[in-house]
Design a protein that fits this description.
The chain contains 12 helices and 17 strands. The protein has 373 residues and is of the alpha+beta class. Helix 4 (115-123) crosses helix 10 and helix 5 (125-136) packs across helix 9. The protein binds zinc ion.
Length: 373
Amino acid sequence: MVDLQIQFHPDRHAYTNVCPDWTLPKRDGLSYLFVQGQHSRIVAGGFPSVQVGPDTPSLTITIPRDRDIFGVLLLGNPYGPRQENIPAPRTRFREMWTSPEGAALRGMLRLFGGLWHCGQVFEDPYWRKILFEMAKGEAGRKRWRTLSQFQQRFGNLRQEALAESPDHNYWSQRRSFDEWFHRDFDSLVETGVFRQGTEIRCSNCGSYCWYPVENLGPSLACLGCGDAVSLPTEASWSFRVNELISDSLRSRGTLAVIQSLYLLERESREMFLMLPSQNMADAPDAEPVTDLDIVALVDGLFVIGEAKSSASGFDQQIVDKLADLAEHICPDRLLFAAPDGEWPEHVVQHVASVRENLARFGIDVRELRLRWI
Ligand SMILES: [Zn+2]
């Protein structure tokens, strides 16, 4: 047997010096994705390993798609040949597809330039607060802001935070909306997280509307009455949060999912791979039985889980359902993720009993306590 040490997507690690290798859990069908037609398996250490002999002049290695890797893990090797020495997975699912929440998350991650960059923006208390405020678009407040309003809000938030706790770690170190924040802001505009445009008043119907920069011309149709309005000669730029992001952020569950995945990626020392939320069904064309918020490979461990914006959302029914799912899918780890500090005692106990029950299947059950929300 020859162990294959294959670099894991160097293109996805352009921002770090880390160069991890593909390390995978020992599951039937995974090694087959890399070397079809050869006798192969995953060996200790997580490397795919393949049988070669004098009659093997060359070896073709394929880097599988992320979805195919998780297809094997969640659906139980539906495509590859069976291997006698590895027990068949217990999974009952036959179909998986990205849920609407997962599709929105995928779009968001694309805008931010990946999970890492997205997590870094939301990890920053100022940007997190601003993005939420603008996404929610509170009544009576415009959903667009000028650069000076961004700066002004920075001052207010700093003042409020320091009045509450004068040694606030973040705010005491950041005195002004300095060049670093300007740079962050420029890159958020460049990637389309903030859209640039201007507010124009229509002289016919009197409405103030916001027009994105790509739609501007010397004359344009009023969004209110449709009459022609002309671009003011002294227009000033203002910015809105991209609609996909603001729609996603209106449910706080999205942030819990982002933070969970970002934490998993940040804490991984080797390879990290994820799929956005997946709907799972028992049969082709069937209604989904459930969706899975967290589907990831972390340092060779297969991790699934659920992220809630509040731990009280883990009621008896949901915890039992996740335990049942885990028993069918057999991940290495099952995560219950929710903001820290408000975990009701009955939830903690219920999770502990699931931990005890699933230990016999070798499934590690953990709470993931989030600190941003
Ligand atoms: Zn008008």
